[in-house]
Design a protein that fits this description.
Elements (H helix, E strand, L loop, with lengths): L1 H8 L2 H36 L9 E3 L2 E3 L1 H29 L2 H4 L3 E3 L6 E3 L19
Antiparallel strand pairs: 1-2, 3-4
Helix pairs in contact: 2-3
């Protein structure tokens, strides 16, 4: 049983998953700080207040706290925007020319997908002009 546990616990993908979870938690703290300490303060500078939680109205002695909902909604939208911008920047920074090269194309005769560098279609056996990459 100890051997099986050791194999499970130290299997490559389990360790990678643990690292991903820990990095995800740390990244979440960074995003939360960006939203709360930077973006919400920019909203406060533009609107006049960064916190809407005090906004309420009453219906038959029930207090409707729509300000807390607005806070949660704005926070969600800002987190989504921050993540979108960060992922977009990382994707742009890590893009390679190979990512933009087509891996396949259609045969002009039978419309089957063939490799971009192919000189003959594997489906209809017609000769096609190969695409030169690079």
């Amino acid at each position: 049983m100890w051997k099986e546990f050791k194999e499970f616990a130290f299997r490559g993908n389990v360790i990678e998953l643990a690292v991903a979870v820990i990095l995800g938690l740390a990244f979440g703290v960074v995003i939360t700080s960006l939203v709360n300490d930077v973006l919400m303060n920019l909203i406060a500078a533009a609107i006049g207040q960064p916190d809407f939680s005090q906004l309420t109205f009453t219906v038959n002695d029930a207090v409707i706290r729509y300000g807390a909902f607005l806070n949660a909604l704005v926070n969600f939208l800002l987190v989504a925007l921050a993540l979108f911008l960060i992922v977009k920047a990382v994707n742009r920074a890590t893009r390679t020319p190979a990512d933009e090269e087509p891996s396949g194309r259609e045969c002009p005769y039978c419309l089957t997908t063939i490799p971009a560098r192919a000189s003959r279609c594997s489906a209809c056996t017609m000769e096609v002009q190969p695409v030169t990459l690079g």
